[in-house]
Amino acid sequence: MPDDNQKSGDLPPGAGGRVLHLAEFDANNPARILADLRDYWQSLRRGRAIPLRSEIEPKGIRGALDYAFILERVAPGAARFRLAGRHLIDLMGMEVRGMPLCAFLNPGSRGRLSDVLETVFHAPQLAELTLVAKAEYARPALAARMLLMPLRSDLGDVTRALGCLISEGEPGSLPRRFDLVRERILPIFEGAEIVAPSASAPGFAEPPADWRRTRLPAPAEPATPAAAPAAPAPSAAATALPETPEDRRARFRVVVRND
Fold first, then answer.
1. Of the four listed, 3, 31, 41, 258, which is most buried by Cβ atoms within 10 Å?
2. CA distance 203 to 225
3. What is the pLDDT of residues 179-201, one digit of tens each?
4. pTM for the full model?
5. Pairwise CA distance, residues 136 & 174, whole Å
6. What sign results for the dihedral spanned by CA atoms 54, 71, 57, 183?
7. What gap in Å lies between CA 138 and CA 221, rounded to an integer?
8. In three state form, how does the secondary structure of 137-149 look?
């Protein structure tokens, strides 16, 4: 029991304790990590629509560093990891830099992820995804959340994104892949209109032409070569046989004068 002379609130002599900061309370809560990362992205805007990739600093996202990643848009609806935290490596069981983002999703959800990803870069806007990995042999069920926020490259185009992926529970046998069960689209400016992700054609190709109404052009007829000019008829002298000495002697005449 504390001594009667001890002031209220003082620790007993020799008692030790760790000072807890409010900022460290429930630091691994997914909702808190996503909110902190989004607040950091908002703080970089400083009146602009989208911050620059070069403005992202590790010390600014210290609490979310293990879950954060940087994406690079490489094609419509496709992006690859430029940087990724330790948590993503633990889920995949390998280094993920250079891998496409869709590698974390099952094939049935990759098309929808592509649509969401393209609207993040193209609109641009923010997206929060709810992911689920079903339980399998040596793989317990996992719930995860993903956040995607656009960034500008050094050239000024929106081809980068800051994001994070957080799952709860032991991953089990690796790699783990998820199904996309729900997405939430958020505008950059509060109250702005949201551009909903829309399904696109495979490969973003143009619609095929109707073959029943398409006629191939008739093959062009080969051009008739111009007639060669007629050769002049050979003259009689050209066609005559060469003259022999006997022929020449036959033409001589003997003239006799009888005076």
1. 41
2. 48
3. 999 999 999 998 899 999 987 64
4. 0.69
5. 11
6. positive
7. 71
8. CCECCEEEEEEEE
Going by C-alpha positions, the residue among 93, 87, 44 that lies closest to residue 68 is 87
Phi, psi at residue 129, to the nearest 5°? -115, 140
φ, ψ for residue 172, nearest 5 deg: 75, -145
Can you tell me which residue has the tokens 């689920």? 132
* Residue-level pLDDT at 198: 84
The reported pLDDT for the residue numbered 224 is 63
Between CA 79 and CA 118 the distance in angstroms is 9
With a cut of 50, list the residues of the chain below it in pLDDT.
Answer: 1-2, 4, 6-9, 11, 15-16, 19-25, 201-206, 208, 211
Can you list the positions of beta strands (E) in the chain?
68-75, 78-84, 126-133, 142-151, 160-168, 179-186
Q: What is the pLDDT of residues 205-254, one digit of tens each?
A: 445 455 455 556 666 666 666 665 666 665 555 555 666 766 666 665 65
User: CB–CB of 72/160 below 8 Å?
Assistant: yes
Amino acid code (one letter) for 75:
A
Radius of gyration of the chain (CA): 43
